[in-house]
Structure formats: C-alpha cells, structure tokens
Specification:
The chain has 5 helices and 5 strands, in the order ββαβββαααα. With 196 residues, the protein is an alpha+beta fold. It has one domain (29-170): Aldehyde oxidase/xanthine dehydrogenase, molybdopterin binding domain (Aldehyde Oxidoreductase, domain 4). Strands 1-2-5 form a 3-stranded mixed beta sheet. β3 and β4 form a beta hairpin. The radius of gyration is 23 Å and the shape is extended.
C-alpha cells in the first residue's frame, strides 16, 4: 500500500514594510492555568499542577499532540522559572550548566492536557498548530499564578528566587568559583619547558 499527497497553505497578504494585512491564514487558541506554591521566605516557586488547553483543529495523532503539550509546558517552565542567559560585553555569562539551569523530569508538574478540536478548513486535514503555542502560554501562566499567590507582579523572567523575593535580580561581582577552578586546572595542565 502506498500513499502520497501534499498540502499548500492558503496565501496571506501580510505587508512587512507597512505592518498590516493578513499575517496568518488561521489562528490558534489556548489557555493555561498553573497552580504554584511560593515560599515567601526564600522566593522558591514550585509548580504543583498545570492545565494546558489548546484548540488544535483536528488532532490527527492524539499521542503526538499530547507530547507537544507536555514538552511545551516543560519548556515554558524553564523559560518562566530557570533559564537565564546574560551577556557582558557580548560574551555569555552562563558558560556552563552549573549556572544555566533547565528543568528536569523532577521539576515538571502534574500536567492536565485538554485537547479542543474545531476543525479548520484552511489546515491540512483540519489541523492547526500546537508546537509553539503550548510553549508560549506556559511562562505567563506561571508568572500570573505567582502574582495570585503573593500579590507581587514579576515583570522580568525567569522568576528567580531573587526576583520573587526581592523584586529584582542580584548581580555578582567577579568570576564564579567554578570558572576560577577551570583556570587553575587549565594552568596545571600546561606543558612547561624543561629547566636547565
């Protein structure tokens, strides 16, 4: 048995120069809810439960759609709470995973996925997008849940301990200790000329 087909999306009329027109041939809709627990003494945020609801058009492969939900929430969790990437003089400050944190399976909360199916005539087999939307809504849901729990509005992500507790980011002066250890190790491994 053999199947072959293709899909060409409808034309859009977006004018990049003037910034108007029809940018997309269809729109996706979704809503996320995060239940968080905030330690008001340390600023630590734990996401306990997460509801992710998206209109995917037609869910052609249900397990694939659910995988996008789970992966998007995990990525959004990192974006909203952990992943900080700073530059100083055009050089990244986080050079290692000891400072650039990403979520692990232990950080991901209980996720309740809700698939809404409203077939879209413009999409292939009635499907819409789900990859990016599942990620984009997660961080704002977490930030709003922190506000509902503490009454403090976070205006910059990630919502680190300092931003949640103090309302601003702490800055470090000097090098991190692991960078100093790397320099000592690198120096000890250099080949030295023989002494005469």
């Amino acid at each position: 048995m053999y199947g072959f087909g293709w899909y060409k999306s409808p034309q859009t009329s977006w004018d990049e120069h003037h910034g108007h027109g029809e940018a997309y041939f269809t729109f996706v809709y979704g809503a996320n809810i995060a239940e968080v627990e905030v330690d008001t003494e340390t600023g630590k945020v734990d996401v306990l439960n997460f509801v992710s609801c998206h209109d995917v058009g037609k869910a052609i492969n249900r397990n694939s759609v659910l995988g996008q939900f789970y992966g998007g929430v995990a990525m959004g969790l990192g974006y909203g709470l952990m992943e900080e990437f700073d530059f100083e003089d055009s050089i990244p400050k986080q050079l290692n995973f000891d400072e650039y944190l990403i979520p692990t399976s232990m950080d991901v909360p209980n996720i309740i996925p809700i698939i809404v199916e409203n077939e879209d005539a413009a999409g292939p087999f009635g499907a819409k997008s789900i990859g990016e939307p599942s990620n984009e809504l997660a961080a704002p849901a977490i930030i709003n849940a922190i506000y509902n729990a503490t009454g403090k509005r976070i205006y910059e992500i990630p919502a680190t301990l300092e931003r949640v507790l103090l309302g601003h980011k702490l800055t470090r002066k000097g090098e991190r200790s692991s960078a100093k250890k790397e320099e000592v190790l690198a120096d000890s491994c250099k080949i030295r000329p023989e002494r005469k």
